[in-house]
Amino acid sequence: MEHKLWGGEPYYGLGYDFDPQWYLTDAQKDLQKRLIEACHDVIRPEAIRCDETGEYPWKSVEALAELRLLGCIVPERWGGSGENHVGLAMIGETVTRYGCPSTGVIFMMHMAGLAALLFRAGGNEEILSLLRRLDSDVMIGSASFTDPETGGHFWYPKISAVEKVEGGWRVRKKASFTTSCGHARWVVTQTTSPGFDGDYSDISDFLVYADELKADPGRWDVMGMRATVSGPVEIDAVLPENRLIGAPGDGAASNDEAVNLVGMILYGALYNGVAMGALDLARRYTTRRRHAQYGQSVADYPTTQAAYGKSVIDTQVSRGYLYALSRELDRATGGGDWTIYEADPDARPRTPYICWGLVAKEMAARVAGEVADGMFNLYGGAAYSRRLEIERVLRDSKAGWIMGPTNEVTRGIVGRWALHGHEAVDWWNQRVNRGLLDNELDKLDAAGKRAIMERLGAELGGSDRGRDS
Ligand SMILES: Cc1cc2nc3c(=O)[nH]c(=O)nc-3n(C[C@H](O)[C@H](O)[C@H](O)COP(=O)(O)OP(=O)(O)OC[C@H]3O[C@@H](n4cnc5c(N)ncnc54)[C@H](O)[C@@H]3O)c2cc1C
After folding, report:
1. Averaged confidence pLDDT in the chain
2. Residue 359 beta carbon below 6 angstroms from any ligand 1 atom
3. CA-CA distance, 151 to 155, in Å (whole number)?
4. What is the mean pLDDT of residues 327-352?
C-alpha cells in the first residue's frame, strides 16, 4: 500500500488503507495527490489565517483554479475537464479534509450555481462563454437562493419578482446568505417566474454578475466557516434576455435535476471530509501526548480506542454511502455528462435520486458534528488551543446541520416521503391538510364558524358571500 505524504513527510493522519481508493480512476488518484499538495502548501495555511482574520481565502480559490477545479464538471466540449460524480465527491472531501472547510463550502456553492448553468448551457452563448473562463479567469461563482422569509427551504423564493421589460428582465431578489458574498464574480439566483400568480413552484433561475448585485459581506461575523463570507445579497437589476437560465418556470426542474444532486453530493463529501480531518488531527495528538504516570499515550487507553473506532466506523459508513451513490449517478448519466440536456431537454436521469442525496447530506452533516465533538474531547484541555486546530474543525463542523435543508427539515422530508410517498413532501406547502382543517373547524362555535364564513365570503366576492350566509 502506497504511503500518503504531507509536505514530503509521512502523513500524520489515517493512510490510504482507510480511504475507499477503489472508487477512483488512476487520473483521479493523481488529481487527489496534487490537491493534497495544494492543501499542504496553500489551502491549509490559508484556512488557519482566514479563520483568524475573517478574510476571504482568495489564494485557496486560485489554487483550485490552477488545478482546473472551478470547471471540473464542465464537459470537455464546453472547455472543462468532464469530471464525474465520484471525482466531484473526492475533490470535495479532499479540500475539506486536508485543506479548509470554508473553501469546501465556497467550492460547493460555486458548483451548485454551476450545475444550474450546465443544465441549460446548450445553445446559450452567454453561459458557454462563462464556462470557458471559469479556471483561466478564476471566475468563482455562488448560488444565491435562501430567502430571509422562508429560510432553509431555499427553493421557496418569497422576496423576489421578475418582470419582462424591453430587451430583458427586471429581476428583484433578496437572499439572506450567499457564500463568497462580495467576492463571487457571478451568482445564480432563483426567483418567482415572470407573470407569477401565487404558485411558488413556478420559479426561474438567472445568471447575475457581480456588478449587478449589492453584497453586504460586512454582516458575516460568525463562529465557524468564517472564510466563506456568506453575507446577504440584494438584486434589483435589468438583465439581458439570455441571463434567464432555460425557459421561464424551469427552476423546479433545475433544482431536481441539477442543483440538488450536485449540492447533496458535495454536502456529503464536504462533511465526510470534516469528519476525516478531525480523525486525522486526533490521531496525531493522541498518539503523541503521553501521560508519565502510566508511560502510555492517550491513544493507548481502551476508552480512546473505542471512541476513535466508533468515529471511524460512522465516518466510513457515510463515505461508503456517498461514493456508492456517486457511482450510481455516474452510471445513470454516462459518467456525469451534462450535454445530454442539449439533445433532450426533458431528460431527468438524476432526479430519481433526490431522496438518496438528502440522506447523504443528513448523514454526513450529523456524523461530522458528532465526530468533531468526540475528537475534541480526546484532547482534554488542549482542545481549546487554536494552535492544535481541532477547535476550528469543531466550529466548522456545526454548519452542515444548520445549512439548508437543515437536518431537521431533511429528516422531515425523508420521513414524509418514506411514509406517504413523494407527493406528500409538498415542497411548496400547497396541499391542504383536510383532516387538520376539519378538526380545527370542529372546535369553533357558531359565531366562530360564521366569522370564518364571512371572511371567506369577502375573499371570494359579493355573490359568494350572499350564497354562503
Ligand atoms: C456557512 C453558510 C453558508 C451558506 N451559504 C449559502 C449560499 O451560498 N446560498 C444560499 O442560498 N444559502 C446559503 N446558506 C443558507 C443555508 O443554506 C440555510 O438556508 C440557512 O442556513 C438556514 O438558516 P435560517 O436561519 O434561515 O434557518 P431557518 O430555516 O429559519 O431554521 C430555523 C430552525 O427551524 C427549523 N425548521 C425550519 N423549518 C422546519 C420544518 N418545516 N420542520 C421542522 N423544523 C423546521 C430548522 O431546522 C432550524 O432548526 C448558508 C448558510 C451557512 C451557515
Report:
1. 96
2. no
3. 9
4. 97
